[in-house]
Specification:
Shape: globular
CATH class of the largest domain: Alpha Beta
Oligomer: single chain
Distance between the termini: 54 Å
CATH topology of the largest domain: Rossmann fold
Helix content: 40-55%
Number of helices: 20
Structural class: alpha/beta
CATH architecture of the largest domain: 3-Layer(aba) Sandwich
Strand order of the largest sheet: 1-8-2-7-6-3-5-4
Largest sheet: 8 strands, parallel
Radius of gyration: 28 Å
């Protein structure tokens, strides 16, 4: 407990400003004002006292960042003035990227001005924290957050391309000042783009290095000697092990940031990260000079192991002891080589954003497709559907493609260019549908995602928090719906317990009268998918046999023998034509159904309360004008009213 200070945000105040690193722990967080547009004369006074250099301030003003977010206000003074190692826990969409990006850029500017790459700290300091653990009073989280950039370039930008710098001898002498590690390729691109935007007037070069793209191209990028490298551990370690000249400087970096740290240091994941840490921490004196940044939305959340892993551990160790928050943080500090930790935790007790509406939907396993199609049609908007497996993503992408929902799949087995292309298409489509595994759960900042659907209950509470964090970002409203079949109840209860929830998630309202039309369409799409697959397999097998028979000058039995081969071949052709005709018929029936709307303008519905009683919903004058969030909030209010009336009747009895 005496090694680091655990801070929770104090209530925001309009009258006090942060004035420096020495008093940063006791100051009130300035009010955070949203900026809907990007005027040329923004009032940037709320950044004063943070230590942000003028070139970075200029870039922030152009981006429309009129005030720091809460995590930025809590960490920037200590990081810039006090040179502290920052361990930050903040809700998704709260501005964590610039919370570490601004101090790194500021520090590099300072080192370049001093013409020194030995480290941002002038001398090693004694390991340990200054002062006991501090617990600030909880906040109601009623502040406004400065929104992130609305447009992100997911494809590597100009700073990743070949330039004249590649043959510039001075460029080859540039040190490698900072390394930022991320768990996914998409997050690496996103972080790189944020840093490039903030570094616009600093002259600092940033590059993203990750798997799935050409090694040769990324070696050309590294030949430009960028001062900041944002990378995934696997590709970074691969290029370092191959002896890349610029990455050979990694042992002497002045800044190290690990984004979504808790996931990356879990046992069994990112073994290359452990190899990199051994290299980074080999020199004790250099390790003390390095400034570290560790950020995650679930840094202070400790979850139970999934059931299958618990059984495996119990077989080896009869007593499985759950790790505490302090133990988790101590382990991170030790493993990452952190010497001067300052921990800032601004996550709310429920771990999800205050503007997020959470709900669940109970159904049988074979009914999930019905309810997903119902939701997509009833509440059009930018929607992410999360699945636990790649096979599930592929199946849903095919099924909803047949239903004309234009789904965009995203999973680890896709080539990187297609993953980035699908993300860009999803970002550009206001009613886009992204069906993804947890590869899209962490860190991705896709603007204006309205809905997150957990098609399967997440395996851990951390996955639930990160998935849900793709919506309700930057103080915007969003909704999550967890589809739950009877076999997933145990996982739901375990998740509920870890998040310390005292009440069940409310049930999402469904109008049963429209499910008949929904089921008819989905069933036809399922049949069409099945028949098309059968037809493709038949054609594939026939083509394979004929091709290889011709190559080997073989006669295929049943086609060319004299005992009725013509009749057999005719029967085969007739059967194939019959199958194709059936496929065409089903496709025509489905097209006819899809041409008609399911939901007429203006309808009412009934939904079940927690007791199973049906409650009449409010009539909707124009159903397509009501969002899923508004529908759910109205349902919650009606359920509360029904509960009050039920309690009154009980008291009378």
């Amino acid at each position: 407990p005496d090694r680091f200070a655990l801070l929770r945000p104090p209530p925001p105040s309009d009258d006090e400003q942060l004035e420096g690193a020495e008093s940063a722990d006791d100051e009130q967080v300035p009010e955070l004002v949203p900026c809907e547009s990007q005027p040329s004369n923004l009032d940037m006074t709320k950044w004063h006292g943070m230590g942000v250099p003028e070139p970075i301030m200029r870039a922030l003003a152009e981006l429309g960042y009129e005030a720091p977010t809460q995590i930025q206000a809590m960490t920037l003074p200590a990081a810039i003035h006090g040179k502290k190692d920052i361990l930050g826990a903040a809700e998704t969409g709260s501005g964590k990227t610039l919370a570490f990006g601004i101090p790194i850029l500021s520090g590099i500017m300072e080192l370049k001005q001093r013409n020194d790459d030995s480290g941002i700290r002038k001398a090693p300091k004694v390991k340990g924290a200054q002062g006991p653990v501090e617990e600030a009073p909880p906040t109601k989280d009623n502040h406004e957050l400065t929104p992130p950039p609305e447009e992100l370039d997911y494809v590597s930008g100009a700073s990743d391309e070949e330039s004249d710098n590649e043959h510039d001898p001075e460029a080859k002498q540039r040190p490698l000042y900072a390394v930022v590690l991320t768990p996914t390729r998409e997050l690496a691109v996103q972080v790189k783009n944020h840093l490039v935007s903030a570094a616009k007037y600093t002259g600092i070069n940033v590059a993203a290095i990750f798997g799935g793209l050409s090694v040769a191209k990324q070696e050309r990028v590294l030949r430009q000697c960028p001062e900041i490298v944002v990378a995934t551990p696997g590709r970074l370690w691969e290029l370092y092990a191959q002896g890349n000249s610029h990455l050979s400087k990694i042992e002497n970096v002045s800044f190290l940031c690990i984004d979504e740290t808790d996931r990356m240091v879990e046992k069994g994941h990112f073994e290359e990260l452990r190899s990199l840490l051994k290299v980074l921490n080999a020199d004790e004196e250099r390790k003390k000079l390095r400034q570290n940044f560790v950020f995650s939305a679930t840094l202070t959340l400790v979850h139970d192991l999934p059931e299958h892993m618990q059984k495996r551990n119990l077989a080896k160790r009869p007593k499985f002891v759950k790790q505490t928050v302090d133990q988790k943080i101590e382990s991170l500090i030790e493993e990452l080589g952190i010497s001067q930790p300052k921990i800032v935790d601004i996550t709310s007790s429920q771990q999800t954003a205050q503007t997020l509406t959470e709900s669940r939907l109970l159904c049988a396993i074979d009914e999930k497709d019905y309810y997903l199609y119902y939701f997509v049609q009833r509440h059009p908007g930018r929607t992410i559907v999360f699945c636990n497996s790649i096979d599930c993503v592929k199946r849903l992408a095919t099924l909803f493609g047949l239903l004309d929902c234009n789904p965009l799949p995203l999973h680890a087995n896709m080539i990187q260019k297609q993953r980035l292309k699908n993300l860009e298409r999803f970002r550009d489509n206001p009613i886009g549908l992204l069906i993804a595994t947890d590869v899209a759960a962490r860190g991705l900042d896709i603007p204006n995602v309205e809905h997150v659907i957990h098609y399967q209950v997440p395996r851990t509470s951390e996955n639930y928090v990160h998935r849900s964090g793709r919506t309700a970002r930057a103080n915007k409203h969003g909704i999550t719906v967890m589809f739950m079949e009877p076999g997933e109840v145990k996982a739901y209860v375990r998740l509920h317990k870890t998040l310390e929830r005292t009440e069940d998630l409310p049930l999402f309202p469904i109008s049963e009268r429209f499910l008949g039309a929904v089921k008819e369409r989905v069933n036809l799409a399922r049949e069409l998918d099945k028949e098309e697959l059968k037809l493709r397999r038949t054609q594939s097998e026939e083509g394979w046999m004929k091709k290889h028979a011709e190559e080997m000058d073989m006669i295929i039995d049943g086609y060319n023998d004299e005992s009725g081969s013509d009749q057999d071949e005719d029967a085969f052709i007739i059967e194939r034509r019959r199958n194709r005709l059936h496929v065409d018929t089903v496709r025509a029936q489905l097209s006819a159904l899809l041409s008609r709307p399911i939901f007429p303008k203006g309808f009412s519905f009934k939904y079940p309360t927690s007791t199973g009683q049906l409650v009449e919903g409010t009539d909707i004058a124009s159903s397509d004008s009501r969002s899923a969030v508004e529908t759910m909030k109205a349902a919650i209010e009606d359920m509360k009213l029904a509960k009050q009336q039920r309690n009154k009747r009980k008291r009378k009895v």
